[in-house]
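## Example pair
The file below holds two records. Each record gives the amino-acid sequence first, followed by its structure token line.
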Amino acid sequence: MKKILLGLIVLLCHWIAFADNTEEEKVRLLLSERGEASVLIEAEREDLYLLTRIVSLDGKSGDGYVAYVNKKQFDELCRTGFKYTLLENNSPKAASMASDISQMASWNKYPTYEVYVQMMRNFASSYPDLCCLDTICLSENGRLILSLKITALSEQYTAKPKFFYSSSIHGDELTGMIMLLRLADSLLSSYNTNLQIQNLLSSVELYICPLANCDGAYAGGNNSVSNATRYNANYVDLNRNFPDPVYGSHADGEQYQAETIGFMTYAERKRFDLAANLHGGAEVCNYPWDCWTSSQRTHPDKAWFETICSRFVSMVKQNAPSSYFTDVATNGIVAGGNWYTVFGGRQDYHNYFLKCREITIEVSSTKTPSSSSLPLYWNYLGKGLTQFVFDATRGICGTITDQDDLSPIDSVRVIVEGIDRDDMSVFSKQEGDYFRGLEQGNYTLVFSKEGYQDKRVSVGVLSDSLLVMNVSLSKNAVSLSEQEPTNRLTICPNPCKDNLRFESDFAGDYEIVSIGGIVLKKGSFASGESTINLADLPAGAYLFKYSNKDCSLGICSTTIIKQ
């Protein structure tokens, strides 16, 4: 009893001292204990472009904006002179934990880190014909960032759209983590008895990463999420740490984190067609762009984004209270930049650099809801999350091959006339497969690649259907001067392994560029035989750009394949 009384006295003294502190002292005390703090900043809409470069904005609240800060960000915020208030949501969350897998049977607990990893492994081992487990990367603290690939063999769909579900890139936004774990369980366990699920997994490659920020979720240790943080182990917001369309690399002023590098490498290797990232703290479907308002720039697929988001919201509202998905926009849909501006987010990175159509789904106004409420959220979201994959993957898919030898052609640009602009058209992948999401209607597609004749095809897309359209391209006729160039560069073999070997008639400079447009390597080469080491690059397709020293050739490019 004495020990309990003494503990209460110490806690009371700590609370009194905390209460007497100034607002700045309160924030700095929290930063020293936790590494991050949530504040409400008094600001106007016109202040956002400045604020979003300083802090991690998290939404609008009344006349101000909610933001997270680490020590460096808070120092800068203090220098700017904005008024702020420490928010109450910095306290530990009430979370009931499952210490073994059997305790997850009712889905009303959060798993410990070890239970989470075991659940992911069990999905793959229990359903080996449908599911395999992949490691995206290790976190900064060495925890596993895992992804499930779920799909079924199909004779009809040899070229399937690739859809990537992920959640909890902010470690304290954990509703989505449980939703995606349960989605994987539902799809796999019901496959043999549910024709709809069979059709879905026959036509789609579905990838599910329930927990993108393990270090944030388990910041207080592997056995609890009560002290989960938004930031990763280095107190960096991972959803501000990606290349940005406006500010380029390191828009947040931080080095790329282990998790960021892992996700970029994974996405460039898999070359996803579609993606959805689940968050918490609001209830809304957020579509691109995040770095621009609608008045500054709209995505060419704005109408398509709004259609698939509207269908999702309608589905979840069938099973949820009328107030669900209305706290940001009454229709549950918002263009990201119209809500608040974000630089360095994964949504814009995927859309702008990789041509992957990604949206953000905020699934719960409470970031880490009570464990007992998790089954309710599944009742709201379960059918919608499944149907969203169906809706997003309606359009056209197929394989593009060389007309002469029937070999697949990588990096063919697929242009939808009248829609595609700002270089937002998609490209074929290494195996020649492509996908383009489209609503019902008639379209003209142009298939284009240097060295081949363009092909124009008119198609009609039916509602709620995936049209399979395979295309063959003819090579351009080769002139005598092209056959015997005076400035020749040849690559052999291609595909290559760890070393790219080539022979050139000239000295020059080169860049190796990802399909998403990121320069991965650059340097110079001499005339004659040269070798470039590619051992640190993942398997996949890249652009090899080169020019001679006096630039008389201009900039030439060719596709290389690393095995």
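Second record, same layout:
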Amino acid sequence: MLARTRYQQLATIRTPFLDIAVQASLLTLPYLIKQDTYGPNWKNIKTPWQSVGAKGVVNLASKLMLALLPPQTTFFKLQVRDDKLGEELEPIVRSELDLSFSKIEKLVMQYIDASSDRVVLHEAVKNLVVGGNALLYMGPKNMKFFPLNRFVVNRDGDGNVIEIVTKELISKEVLGLDLPELETKEPRPNSPASPKSGLPGLDEDDVEVYTYAKLDEKAGRWVWHQEVLDKIVPGSRSTAPKSVSPWLPLRFNTVDGEDYGRGRVEEFLGDLKSLEALSKALVEGSAAAAKVIFLVSPSSTTKPQTIAQADNGAIVQGRPDDVAVVQVAKQADFSTAMNMAERIERRLADAFLILQVRDSERTSAEEVRLTQLELEQQLGGLFGLLTVEFLVPYLNRTLLVLERSKQLPKIPKDLVRPQIVAGVNALGRGEDEKSLTQFITTITQTVGPEIAIQYLNPEEYLRRLAAAQGIDTLNLIKTKQQMDEEMQAQQQSAMTQDLTKQAGQLSKSPLMDPTKNPAVMNMMDGNSENPNPTEPANQITAGASTGGNIEAGGTVD
């Protein structure tokens, strides 16, 4: 089947979702989502009467970006599969593996930070919030985004995508193809290059490029190609394993049986429409109330020209009763409209999480965790859906691209398992930290710190606390063996210092003075002998203390 034909078939199912997305875009960010048309309609953008919707979308998208791809930290961890290597690993081996994994994680995050993925993803997240759908294509060099009006999908009964068709308008020069070989004798009526297309404002050098991707269940691979003028572009066929597919169709909210998602704005579309009408009425009413008009009685002697031409402070003839000022007595109506608008704004602010003001200069790990907790409480299982449809395939594809480009060593998938530590998993780590700290505090307050330290293992506590915060403890926390060795070394050092101190005190005693003990001089000259080595050396001390003479035989007089 032709890609153009399949696109038109699936576009029929997409129509109601696209219509709602366009309405949501007009009330928030009008430029974001448009109908599936070309031409001047793209330029007819009307600014909403209120800015609450735009502020809410941008704020919620920024918080989602902070939770999915947090800066200055990694959103995944590489862990050894204990079921493959065994649960009992040598500490040295595991430490070396953790160090290697930490280096790989840093390389991956450096690659992501240097790329334009965050910029493209932020645009996709805004489309998710407004329209509920977005499509990402992870090419070998960069990431590409498709809005809802430029792609269609087909899902099976379980919600898995089995078909994707995209439509782009590309210049012939940019396409870089020998189009005469692809063209037929008569131009296709759907082609913008055709005079029969009836699409004004289009360049005749532009052509529609369709990309048709389909899942081959038997082979477990995605297969796709591109078509121009209903002809397959030479060299455009590509394949990829299902687990590392470059095609990432994303949804914000899902409904069973629907091929497309629903956005956050759709859930509050009624409030946005009401606020739009109230804002328009208040602005127009305020403008009318601010207009100053003077009325002059037709039968009065005061002439309107006199009042109109009079300068400020001028003295003219007339009666005050002949002139009146038009006043709009709508203060009560304005007050009612303003109160209702304020109530709606508060509801929308709570829905799009714009009540919480960030006052920190740098993004901390605790702020990221609190943001993730806030999003999870407000948006339900959004993280679970984005983890399955974005984070996991995004990470797998990124690792594959880096391995193929020789920027990373090949990771054995059967031994190493990547684990997402953003979203719900990050929330779990935060709750583990909170529970652990609360437990230690309760134990200390109950039995006292002296007794608590007898039952608790400080090393294990520090390791669990670091794991809850996602901190690598390699060469950071000392083991029990290292602490014992340091204790022994300190004891030996103290003993050595004591012996040195005692030796210094002994050297200052009269016994070691050569003027008072001649034997010391003989010992320094090397003439001292002890013919009876079995006798203790302290006999010399005893002889000297009695003032006797020491003979060659070593006897004491």
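Notes on the second record: Confidence is low (pLDDT under 50) at residues 184-201, 531-557. The longest helix spans residues 480-507.
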